[in-house]
């Protein structure tokens, strides 16, 4: 089947299912409608000039005192039945009024009052999991990847719904049309270095820490962006979760791997399904350690390394890197200083 036929059937050239053509495609004029139908529309209408220039990125456009009102378009559970906890993909419409760059976060102000202080609930941050163009590539939506925060009583081992997380449950329980009070976009720590398109990216995630990388990967390997056209480096994703049912967006990573086998690389650490070298549980630092030589070489060569997910991931990572550096006769303290100074080191954990 040729690409045109595939596109008309709702598949892109790599055989992956595309978002269905929306009815509005009919009302947008014949040329754009046809371009959309056959999927040759470029994602180039939300770019800086040059496209990698980060000096005017949107930042805190909407603040606590005057938040933006977005609207939920969809909420989907994206983990399998045996997953640990529930994680949802939530698409929110901002209508183009709250633009952002890949790697930034939105704030969400859940409705209601905090009983602890009698004040309105405070803002929670969520990494944006789509590119700036949104999953429908209109530039008018953003996706969040949210894990429901639950509370398990340490004594009874039972869930206590009275203590469940306010904002994550509000988001995961939302239905299409629900209005959401939002702030941001915020954050500059997790931006991509696009100036040198040969730069390797090493992206390390636990759980919902995957969110910013989904934006990166869509920008580099799914969309027709100037960044994608220029990219010659290797983007390497490490994702750590408990088991295969807890994997996030696996089909999308597999598709990227098929389409760009030399530019995209993927490794999973499944702590409850895989064992590390000494027979213990396979945590994210154990998987990264398997490739420590390559990773140190890439960093030496200017790669940018990213960490996102639960705070608890960093001690294990740091301990591992220290140990590997020591075995190579390198001072990790000095190396880390140098990486930070060069802007190669990006950490956003919560
Ligand atoms: C930069 C940044 C990016 C983030 N990105 C994401 C993301 O992409 N996806 C994501 O899911 N999260 C993300 N987070 C985390 C997110 O901001 C929230 O912290 C998270 O969703 C929990 O908020 P909540 O309102 O649901 O829980 P809260 O109501 O704030 O409660 C926090 C925790 O305390 C527990 N708790 C509540 N009451 C009690 C009690 N009485 N005793 C003991 N424990 C109690 C809750 O169960 C919960 O686990 C990010 C955080 C930051 C800072
Ligand atoms: C593997 O797991 C064991 C037990 O949890 C741990 O002590 C060890 O540091 C881990 N890593 C490697 C590389 O063995």
TrEMBL record:
Q: What are the names of the required cofactors?
A: FAD
Question: Which positions are tagged coiled coil?
Answer: none
Taxonomic superkingdom: Eukaryota
- Region forming the signal peptide: 1-18
Write out the catalysed reaction: 2 reduced [2Fe-2S]-[ferredoxin] + NADP(+) + H(+) = 2 oxidized [2Fe-2S]-[ferredoxin] + NADPH
Domain FAD-binding FR-type as annotated: residue spans: 65-192
The record's EC number reads 1.18.1.2
Q: Where does NADP(+) bind?
A: 127, 147, 208, 271-272, 281, 309-310, 348
Protein name, as recorded: ferredoxin--NADP(+) reductase
Could you state a single Gene Ontology molecular function term?
ferredoxin-NADP+ reductase activity
Keywords, in A-Z order: FAD, Flavoprotein, NADP, Oxidoreductase, Signal
Tell me if Flavoprotein is a UniProt keyword of this record: yes
User: What lineage is on file?
Assistant: Eukaryota, Haptista, Haptophyta, Pavlovophyceae, Pavlovales
Provide the species name.
Answer: Diacronema lutheri (Unicellular marine alga)
- PANTHER family (alphabetical): PTHR43314
UniProt KW Electron transport keyword:
no
Provide the family line.
Belongs to the ferredoxin--NADP reductase type 1 family.
């Amino acid at each position: 089947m040729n690409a045109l036929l595939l596109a008309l059937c709702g598949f892109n050239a790599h055989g992956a299912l595309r978002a269905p053509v929306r009815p509005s495609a009919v009302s947008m004029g014949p040329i754009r409608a046809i371009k959309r139908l056959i999927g040759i529309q470029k994602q180039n209408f939300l770019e800086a000039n040059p496209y990698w220039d980060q000096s005017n990125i949107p930042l805190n456009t909407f603040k606590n005192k005057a938040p933006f009102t977005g609207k939920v378009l969809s909420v989907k559970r994206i983990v399998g039945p045996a997953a640990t906890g529930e994680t949802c993909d939530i698409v929110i419409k901002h209508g183009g009024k709250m633009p952002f760059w890949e790697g930034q976060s939105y704030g969400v102000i859940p409705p209601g009052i905090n009983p602890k202080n009698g004040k309105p609930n405070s803002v929670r941050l969520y990494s944006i999991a789509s590119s700036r163009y949104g999953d429908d590539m209109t530039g008018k939506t953003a996706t969040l990847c949210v894990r429901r925060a639950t509370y398990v009583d340490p004594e009874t081992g039972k869930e206590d719904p009275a203590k469940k997380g306010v904002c994550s449950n509000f988001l995961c329980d939302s239905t299409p049309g629900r209005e959401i009070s939002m702030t941001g976009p915020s954050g500059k720590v997790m931006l991509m270095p696009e100036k040198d398109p040969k730069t390797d990216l090493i992206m390390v995630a636990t759980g919902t820490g995957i969110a910013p990388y989904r934006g990166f990967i869509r920008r580099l390997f799914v969309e027709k962006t100037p960044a994608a056209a220029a990219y010659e480096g290797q983007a390497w994703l490490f994702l750590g979760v408990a088991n295969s049912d807890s994997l996030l967006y696996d089909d999308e990573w597999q598709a990227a791997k098929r389409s760009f086998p030399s530019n995209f690389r993927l490794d999973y650490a499944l702590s409850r399904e895989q064992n590390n070298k000494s027979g213990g549980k396979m945590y994210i630092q154990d998987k990264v350690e398997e490739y420590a030589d390559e990773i140190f070489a890439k960093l030496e060569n200017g790669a940018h390394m990213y960490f996102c997910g639960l705070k608890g991931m960093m001690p294990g990572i740091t301990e591992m890197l220290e140990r590997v550096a020591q075995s190579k006769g390198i001072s990790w303290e000095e190396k880390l200083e140098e990486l930070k100074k060069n802007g190669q080191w990006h950490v956003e954990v919560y």
